[in-house]
Amino acid sequence: ICNFPLHDEMDFGWRRPVKAAVVDAPFVDCTFLMDTPSGDGINAIVALKEEDMKNLLVDKELLAYASLSNI
């Protein structure tokens, strides 16, 4: 969903959203990419099997370029 005007143009009547996220991904082994609200980065929402997620969370190469957080 990168380059989608989610943070700039969307207004539900109570101002622009501060954050947008996929609430529940019914899929496994998929990634959703979204621009950050400031537009200077990309949020990646990753849905993996539990064992694969454990490996991803300790991957030193990934952690050198990304910060991890729960949504």
Automatic annotation (TrEMBL):
**GO molecular function term, any single one:** acyltransferase activity
Q: Does the keyword ATP-binding apply?
A: no
Q: Which Gene3D superfamilies match?
A: Chloramphenicol acetyltransferase-like domain (3.30.559.10)
Task: Please tell me whether the keyword Amino-acid biosynthesis is annotated for this protein.
Answer: no
Q: Which domain of life is it from?
A: Eukaryota
Which keywords has UniProt assigned to this entry?
Acyltransferase, Transferase
Q: Which PANTHER family match?
A: F21J9.9
Q: Please give the family membership noted in the entry.
A: Belongs to the plant acyltransferase family.
Quote the protein name from its UniProt record: Uncharacterized protein
Can you name the source organism?
Apium graveolens (Celery)
